[in-house]
Amino acid sequence: MISLTDVSKTYPGGVTALAAVSLEIARGELVAIVGPSGSGKSTMLNIIGTLDRPTSGEVRIDGYDVSKLPDRRLAALRATGIGFVFQHFHLAPGVSALDNVADGLLYGGLRRAERRRRAAAALERAGLGHRLGHEPHELSGGERQRVAIARAVAGDPPLLLADEPTGALDSVSGTGVMELLRALNASGTTVVIITHDREIAAALPRRVPMRDGRVVPDPDTGHRTGRDADRGAGPGRRHAGSGAM
Amino acid sequence: MAVPAPGHAARPDPGHAERPGPVPARMRPPDVMRVGAAGLRTRPARALLSALGIAIGIAAVIGVVGISSSSGAELDRRLSALGTNLLTVSAGRTLLGEEAEMPLEAEAMVERIGPVESVSAAGYVETAKVYRSEEVPEAQTGGISTYAARTDLLTTVGATVRNGTWLNEATQRHPAVVLGATAARRLGIGGTGPDTQVVVGGVRFTVVGVLDPVPLAAELDSAALVGWPVAESVLGFDGHPTILYTRSAESGLEDVSAVLAATANPRAPNEIDVSRPSDALVAKQVAGQAFTGLLLGVGAVALLVGGVGVANTMVISVLERRAEIGLRRALGATRGQIRTQFLTESLLLSVLGGTGGALIGAGVTAGYALYRGWPTVVPAWAAAGGLAATLVIGALAGLYPAVRASRLSPTEALATP
């Protein structure tokens, strides 16, 4: 699903955010990329999400060599192949949960009625079937993040990227959000979660610890967690290729 | 095969033959409109205010053009009612600057010109001053001139009687007077009757009628008109006409105009002034149009300022909505789709203002035309031109902000909370 080979990212000014990172994530995995701030995990997410291009190295997402795709084809890849969840939800204010989720499908070429139908189904799946008409300010933080997750998965993308999905939530809401992500993974979606929270990371089947732009051995297991890791050992592996959710 | 079907989880393994990558789906026009309008809906007050800038410009342009057109339509209406075939012949002045005198037979001579359909005359009675009563001091003439008038004068100049009657075969021999509109006002005479009398040349004359203003013979407005015979017998009028009014066949108007002076006064044709009063009305209109051009320029400047307002709003909108732009890019919007979104928003904003402005402009025109009793005319070209101008302004104002929005890096845009 995701294959990074010697990927480096240097920002103008000489800051090296990623230094020759190699990482394989297979279809159906549930992975935590964990590390302190400044460790390069957000850059990693941007590169996996094709929002940013690496300075050097090869990135393959869903079989596509990202460096060879022009910007508009990358946009199309994001539209149908990758779902994003952000720490601060990024929901449109004054717009109902249903339309917020339906807007997530705007660039996939579906008709509005079909977008809304799928949005309703996604919200139902996220446990918000009773909140379709509510606007973001009428929802709790946990509910907002569930709406954001529903938006990310409404188009059934094979890959879901979550950037600190529980970062802005209390622990109860956070647990609920994590359960939803696990459930999505159990139904076949590859889920990559970026977090600095070791506790959350520890609960996931596979961790990719990062420090100073490099993937480091998992201090909990002592194993290398990058390309050479015993990948696919998590429960998500069983559901790989199981088809539509 | 280019667009991966949603929900289709089975994909080829990485490392196989390169695929060209998915092609972005085209957005449907209703979706483009909806996304463009979303930005306006979330900040209605700001949208309204910047649309107002455009609206004022368009309203000014449409209003100026509309009022000018309405006044033109009114002129056409009046000219077709009054006729443009009236020529006036005035005695004019001699080479020495004295009042010239037209021959007694001038009327008869002019009547013999082929295309002339009718001739009428008025003769200035210089000695006969007009007063409300004998008590009024001699110096307070009120600027009212006494004219001896032929009984067919009324129909030839196209004048109408507001009050009472016009001079007829009987009253033209008696001390009866018809007052022009201005003259009646200056004398303070509203109605007519046997006991409404004014003093003309020291003799009491009964006011038998008051005229409406005469557009083609404004000199009659401040005149006291008495019958030709009574002027000669009572006021000492010498019988020489001062102004001839002629109506001619429209086709022969030029020819008549060319020979009028020599016909009316063969001995001194240079003294004669020939004029076409309808030309004066048209000239007045043309002079008004120069002013209209100026106002139109002011309207165009207002429109330009409105366009700058829209551009400003769009630039701010792009700055404020960086996170939204980043989100949309993450959701799969291409650069082109972001550009289209902001361009659509800008176009909607200015078309909103343009439509509102056109309505305001048309309303102002209708109100002013109603107040002046004119027909309301808002030319289609002005409305179409206004709409086209707003589209151009919207596109120009939105272009830079839209390009700027589309060039934002998604990661940078998302980083702004």
Separate helix tally of chain B: 12
CATH C-level of chain A: Alpha Beta
What is the SS-derived class of chain A?
A: alpha/beta
Q: Which CATH architecture of chain A is right?
A: 3-Layer(aba) Sandwich
Mean pLDDT of chain A: 86
Largest interface: A-B, 52 and 50 residues
Oligomer: heterodimer
Beta percentage of chain A is 15-25%
H and E string of chain B: HHEHEEEHEEHEEEHEHEHHHHH
Overall 3D shape of chain A = globular
Could you tell me the number of beta strands of chain A?
10
What is the chain-wise order of helices and strands of chain A?
EEEHEEHEHHHEHEHEE
Low-pLDDT parts of chain A are 227-245
CATH evolutionary superfamily of chain A = P-loop containing nucleotide triphosphate hydrolases
Give keywords.
heterodimer; A: 245 residues; alpha/beta; Rossmann fold; six-stranded mixed β-sheet; four-stranded antiparallel β-sheet; 7 helices; 23% strand; globular; disordered C terminus; B: 417 residues; alpha+beta; 2 domains; eleven-stranded mixed β-sheet; 52% helix; elongated
